């Protein structure tokens, strides 16, 4: 019986292990490409990265866009869920799903259509006479500071944040609110002892998914970016297809460097939170 | 009051963009001083372009294959993570989520040469395989949450009544998992249909999915055509969900008939 159970467990784990082999293997292959010098193993491409001015600028640029869009979409999504979660679960849920139907670049195109210099808003302002000339409309999309990219990500990620946080709020045990009230706790106590510990793990996970995505996805900056500065994924993509072998290897080194940073943050974060997560998942089984 | 506020903001931020795009796709370009006119040209250009039609089929085929493999890989591990205990379970769960926090572009570039060696580069199968990297972690997450909602007692009851593994799955777990399965198919399909870089690197420009055509279209087509093309992306998840529901009905219907036949 015991043997059969463990055997069954191995069967259950097998497909997932195949997947880990695919994902882990692909990263390993990418790493091997990144350290392949002219005469065998070499770290030089990693140090060469930071000699490139365009890369340093690109990292800073990406960091600002990633940090701001993650922060704003998390804050807005959280606020919406906190204030409206009873309605979202009912008839409101399908509305939140609508932006999820479209790929990111389609939403990016919509932002271009809406806020571009020849977009809907500038046309409308021109029609009504509030604007004398199109060129007076501020460059919001395909601009140097990445405002178009920021708007697209915030707009597209808010529904994602809502859908991630919604189950957490729906599962918040109602008795806890009564316990808090009976024990004379204030709203701040409720937040500190019940809501935040409950929300924190999902919040961390969501923040990490969004920031990793924004920092490394090509689609939106490929569409709405300018030629300088470029976001890191655009640079990596261009280097990968570059005629020079050095730049190709540097594309791998760049992505592995980014992977290392995000991977470390993820592992440390989850390790710190794992104990809490376990307690939460155990208590949520019994209701 | 609060309810109204929520619906209005949803309307403005989530529905109106789609509606505007829809209107844009059936009107002539909006310029000041020129009168607006209805036109079906946008949709005609999109649906008369044989490359677009072909790309829709390719996108749907790849998305469905991705969703199917996702379920086959996701259901077993979700069950193990939710209802079994084994050493390093929490660690395994985190590691399985890890691809969501890493640059998937690195995975595609890393696989590129191996795919060429194995003859999978520039094929839909190769693209399907690389699309598994960003989708399977979500499927595992969604299905694990689904399994978490199935009480252990219910599974024990099945075992007590001497249900085999397959019978227990079909009669207890599967019906309760349906909502989670639906969401994971939906997620896998939309993520797969929205991939540009992964498809470009592994498909090498030979596997033409909708995103592969969308980018060059942006350079040449006007806003009316682009708006129609943008809306057309909805067709992929819609078609996938209809196909999945039909398949589920077929399977459920057959097993239902068989059971009646046995009795």
From TrEMBL, chain A:
Main location: membrane
Entry keyword Transferase: no
Bilayer topology: Multi-pass membrane protein
Chain ranges passing through the membrane: 61-85, 146-170, 207-229, 249-273
Cell compartments where the protein resides: Cell inner membrane
CDD domains assigned to the protein according to its UniProt record, in alphabetical order: TM_PBP2 (cd06261)
Domain ABC transmembrane type-1: 55-273
GO BP term (any one): transmembrane transport
The keyword Transmembrane helix belongs to this UniProt entry's keyword annotation: yes
The entry's keywords: Cell inner membrane, Cell membrane, Membrane, Transmembrane, Transmembrane helix, Transport
PROSITE patterns referenced in this protein's UniProt entry, alphabetically: ABC_TM1
GO CC annotation terms, alphabetical: plasma membrane
Signal sequence extent: none
Superkingdom of source: Bacteria
This protein's name: ABC transporter permease
Lineage of the species this protein comes from: Bacteria, Bacillati, Bacillota, Bacilli, Bacillales
UniProtKB/TrEMBL annotation, chain B:
Domain of life: Bacteria
Claim: Manganese is one of the keywords in the record: no
Domain ABC transmembrane type-1 as annotated: residue spans: 56-244
Transmembrane segments: 5-23, 60-82, 94-115, 121-140, 185-214, 226-252
A GO cellular component annotation in the UniProt record: plasma membrane
Membrane topology: Multi-pass membrane protein
Subcellular location field: Cell inner membrane; Cell membrane
Keywords linked to the UniProt accession: Cell inner membrane, Cell membrane, Membrane, Transmembrane, Transmembrane helix, Transport
Keyword Transport listed: yes
Gene Ontology terms: biological process: transmembrane transport
Pfam families per record: BPD_transp_1
PROSITE patterns reported for this sequence: ABC_TM1
Family under the similarity heading: Belongs to the binding-protein-dependent transport system permease family.
This protein's name: ABC transporter permease subunit
């Amino acid at each position: 019986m015991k043997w059969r159970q463990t055997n069954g467990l191995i069967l259950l784990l097998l497909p997932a292990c195949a997947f880990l082999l695919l994902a882990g293997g692909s990263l390993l292959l990418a790493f091997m490409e990144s350290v392949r010098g002219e005469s065998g193993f070499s770290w030089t491409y990693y140090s060469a990265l930071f000699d490139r001015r365009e890369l340093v600028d690109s990292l800073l640029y990406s960091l600002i866009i990633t940090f701001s869009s993650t922060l704003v979409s998390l804050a807005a999504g959280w606020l919406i869920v906190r204030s409206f979660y009873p309605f979202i679960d009912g008839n409101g849920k399908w509305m939140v799903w609508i932006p999820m139907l479209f790929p990111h670049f389609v939403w990016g195109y919509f932002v271009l259509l809406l806020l571009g210099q020849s977009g809907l808003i500038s046309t409308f302002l021109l029609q009504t006479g509030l604007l004398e000339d199109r060129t007076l409309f501020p460059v919001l999309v395909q601009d140097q500071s990445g405002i178009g990219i920021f708007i697209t990500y915030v707009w597209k990620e808010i529904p994602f944040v809502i859908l991630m946080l919604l189950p957490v709020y729906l599962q918040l045990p109602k008795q806890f609110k009564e316990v808090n009230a009976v024990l004379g706790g204030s709203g701040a106590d409720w937040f500190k002892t019940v809501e935040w510990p409950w929300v924190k793990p999902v919040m961390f996970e969501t923040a990490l998914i969004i920031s990793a995505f924004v920092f490394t996805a090509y689609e939106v900056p490929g569409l709405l970016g300018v030629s300088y500065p470029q976001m890191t994924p655009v640079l990596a993509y261009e280097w990968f297809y570059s005629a020079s072998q050095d730049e190709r290897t540097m594309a791998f080194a760049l992505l592995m460097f980014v992977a290392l940073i995000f991977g470390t943050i993820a592992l440390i974060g989850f390790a710190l939170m794992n104990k809490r997560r376990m307690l939460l998942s155990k208590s949520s089984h019994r209701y | 009051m609060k309810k109204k506020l929520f619906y209005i903001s949803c309307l403005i931020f989530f529905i109106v963009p789609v509606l505007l795009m829809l209107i844009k796709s059936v009107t002539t370009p909006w310029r000041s001083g020129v009168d607006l006119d209805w036109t079906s040209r946008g949709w005609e250009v999109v649906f008369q372009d044989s490359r677009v039609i072909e790309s829709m089929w390719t996108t749907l085929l790849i998305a469905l294959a991705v969703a199917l493999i996702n379920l086959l890989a996701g259901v077993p591990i979700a069950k193990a993570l939710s209802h079994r205990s084994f050493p390093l379970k929490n660690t395994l769960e985190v590691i399985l989520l890890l691809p969501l926090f890493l640059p998937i572009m690195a995975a595609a570039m890393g696989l590129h040469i191996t795919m060429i060696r194995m003859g999978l580069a520039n094929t839909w199968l190769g693209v399907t395989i690389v699309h598994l990297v960003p989708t399977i972690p979500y499927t595992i997450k969604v299905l694990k949450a689904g399994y978490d909602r199935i009480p252990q007692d219910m599974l024990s009851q099945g075992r007590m009544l001497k249900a085999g593994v397959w019978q227990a799955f079909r009669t207890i777990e599967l019906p309760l998992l349906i909502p989670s399965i639906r969401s994971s198919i939906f997620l896998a399909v939309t993520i797969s249909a929205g991939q540009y870089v992964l498809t470009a690197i592994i498909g090498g420009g030979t596997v033409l999915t909708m995103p592969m055509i969308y980018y060059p279209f942006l350079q040449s087509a006007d806003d009316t055509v682009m708006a129609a093309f943008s809306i057309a992306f909805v067709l992929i998840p819609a078609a996938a969900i209809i196909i999945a529901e039909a398949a589920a009905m077929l399977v459920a219907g057959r097993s239902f008939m068989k059971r009646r036949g046995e009795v």
